[in-house]
Write a structure and sequence with these properties.
Number of helices: 7
Distance between the termini: 56 Å
Subcellular location: Membrane
Order of helices and strands: HHHHHHH
Pfam families: Tetraspanin
InterPro entries: Tetraspanin/Peripherin, Tetraspanin_animals, Tetraspanin_CS, Tetraspanin_EC2_sf
Structural class: mainly alpha
Number of domains: 2
Main location: membrane
Oligomer: single chain
Strand content: under 5%
Number of strands: 0
Radius of gyration: 23 Å
Largest sheet: none
Family: Belongs to the tetraspanin (TM4SF) family.
Helix content: 55-70%
Shape: elongated
Length: about 200
């Protein structure tokens, strides 16, 4: 009976750590994508020191969880005391890291709100000015993810038009629905979108 119980615990520990391993791999992949993403999402991250630090923390946590899951799986299956010792040391480190992250999130909570990102967008966004890295990056992100600003098209109403484009509408082209969500994708109805017809705009 004792042997069956220990065997059950071993396989449960293996299963638990296998999910940690998969979660760490996903987080690691997401961190790498945010940092090297060619569509320009990295430019928004790089423009904000807090987001930039957060991306590398996510990368480090993903790598740590990946290693933790691997050690836990191997230690459980092989019943290796050395691997299990490293496993529990990693759990302690992750607990301390999470505690630190919670403290930092509390201290900088005002920089992680919708209001903060909306203010940054209104301050730096220059609509269809592709020579501006911030604007070009926002346009790429909005086109790729079929979204519009932080809260919706209303975010752009207070943003001034470019000096050489006084006839430009309040809604930027990047907020218009496309048949294919890429810069090369054809607009569903560009004129109606720019005129404010909601069904042709990305509202999320």
């Amino acid at each position: 009976m004792e042997g069956d119980c220990l065997s059950c615990m071993k396989y449960l520990m293996f299963l638990f750590n296998f999910f940690i391993f998969l979660g760490g791999a996903c987080l690691l992949g997401l961190g790498i994508w945010v940092i090297v993403d060619p569509t320009g999402f990295r430019e928004i991250v790089a423009a904000n020191p807090l987001l930039f630090t957060g991306a590398y923390i996510m990368l480090a946590m993903g790598a740590m969880l990946f290693l933790l899951g691997f050690l836990g799986c191997c230690g459980a299956i092989r019943e290796n005391k050395c691997l299990l010792l490293f496993f529990f040391m990693f759990i302690l480190l992750i607990f301390l890291a999470e505690l630190s992250a919670a403290i930092l999130a509390f201290i900088f909570r005002e920089n992680l709100t919708r209001e903060f990102f909306t203010k940054e967008l209104k301050k730096h966004y220059q609509r269809n000015n592709d020579t501006d890295v911030f604007s070009s990056t926002w346009n790429s992100v909005m086109i790729t993810f079929a979204c519009c600003g932080v809260n919706g098209p209303e975010d752009f109403e207070a943003i001034p038009h470019l000096p050489y484009s006084s006839s430009e509408k309040a809604t930027p082209e990047a907020c218009c629905q496309r048949e294919l969500q890429s810069r090369e994708g054809m607009f569903v109805n560009k004129e109606a979108c720019l005129s404010g017809v909601e069904r042709f705009q990305n509202r999320q």
